[in-house]
Amino acid sequence: MPIQQSDVLYTAVATAENGRDGRVATDDGKLDVVVNPPKEMGGSGSGTNPEQLFAAGYSACFQGALGVVARQENADISGSTVTAKVGIGKNDDGFGIIVEISADIPGVDETTAKALVEKAHQVCPYSKATRGNITVTLV
């Protein structure tokens, strides 16, 4: 169920100049980065790129969701990390992305870790937003 405007707790605002070969900045000045296509896509690779920014946001959001789930399950996830790998490639109608989420949770057994990651995937806002739109693999 989509949230309503009245339910919004925070809104991030970013503006891009010159698309994939320019600059992206937030309205509060906390993020201001040069973006360039990666060398693999014919760019200079000298700046960051939208896929890196998406990977950063997704991994941080997923780690937060993992924390929520762990608290609900009374699981200790101290020292855990979440890595998002975001790939871009050609598809039938231009380009698409694919994501691999991997979590390292040293304080729990593999079965518990897998269950926590699956539950986090159900509650993470990025996972919800991408569900049915892109392939997301959990590792």
From TrEMBL:
Superkingdom of the source species = Bacteria
Against InterPro entries, the record matches this protein to: KH_dom-like_a/b, OHR, OsmC/Ohr_fam, OsmC/Ohrsf
Give the UniProt record's GO annotations in the biological process aspect.
response to oxidative stress
What Pfam family is a match, any one?
A: OsmC
Q: Which family does it belong to?
A: Belongs to the OsmC/Ohr family.
**What name does this protein carry?**
Organic hydroperoxide resistance protein
Per the UniProt record, the source organism is Streptomyces spinoverrucosus
Please name the taxonomic classification of the source: Bacteria, Bacillati, Actinomycetota, Actinomycetes, Kitasatosporales
